[in-house]
Design brief:
Structural class: alpha+beta
Shape: elongated
Oligomer: single chain
CATH superfamily: Umud Fragment, subunit A
Order of helices and strands: HEEHEEEEEEEHEEE
Number of helices: 3
Largest sheet: 8 strands, antiparallel
Helix content: 10-25%
């Protein structure tokens, strides 16, 4: 022991341990609240990319500096009408406006839900979008989407008349096109409702990896 130094008392050691644990816990909670947050997949809407019970990590700060990109998987708040919390309008009863059938919902309900949804961005501001057999037609071009589950007759996978996505809005769809409640029915989502990009999966161990 160095001259002049004394062993710490049990009380001082306990206090030091409490402070270390408190700081570590505070940092962990801060990282989760502001940087990265885990999220559990609650439904089959993103099959085959993401399965029920699979867990992903969501980047909470990326969209503060950059706009979402087509192809990203994001977590966001849907509109209340789209989540069944308030009555909606349009053919599906989920849209924010009345409109004719045969095209996607052109605008969301103005009320934001507290629920979290996870879907893929398939179109952005100014894009035109229509749907054929579950496949996106963006700006008149049929998109290559090898990752989606096929649609079946009766699954509302055809919206032949295009709409234009409003400024600062993004159009979301699940990869399981026949089993997804998404922007086809409740409209494009404003950027301020988007929580962040799901960039990696960490559970189950057999599916650990980055999401492209």
């Amino acid at each position: 022991m160095s001259p002049g130094k004394k062993d710490k008392t049990p009380g001082a050691q306990l206090l030091e341990l409490v402070v270390i644990v408190a700081v570590a816990l505070g940092l962990a909670l801060g990282i989760q609240a502001f940087l990265v947050k885990p999220y559990r997949i609650p439904s089959e809407s993103m099959v085959p990319t993401l399965k029920i019970g699979q867990r992903v990590l969501v980047n909470r700060i990326g969209n503060d500096f950059n706009d979402p990109r087509v192809g990203q998987i994001v977590v966001f708040h849907p509109p209340k009408a789209g989540n069944g919390e308030v009555p909606g309008r349009g053919p599906s009863g989920q849209c924010g406006v009345d409109y004719g059938g045969g095209r996607p919902c052109p605008h969301e309900d103005s009320q934001e839900s507290t629920q979290n949804f996870i879907k893929r961005v398939v179109a952005g501001p100014g894009d035109t979008i229509a749907i054929r057999n579950g496949h996106v037609i963006r700006n008149g071009v049929l998109q290559k989407e090898s990752f989606i589950a096929p649609c079946h007759p009766g699954d509302e996978c055809n919206f032949p008349t295009p709409i234009t996505v409003p400024p600062d809005h993004w159009f979301m769809m699940g990869d399981n096109r026949g089993k997804s409640d998404d922007s086809r029915f409740w409209g494009p989502i404003p950027k301020k409702w988007i929580i962040g990009e799901a960039f990696a999966t960490y559970w189950p161990p057999s599916r650990i990896g980055l999401l492209g």
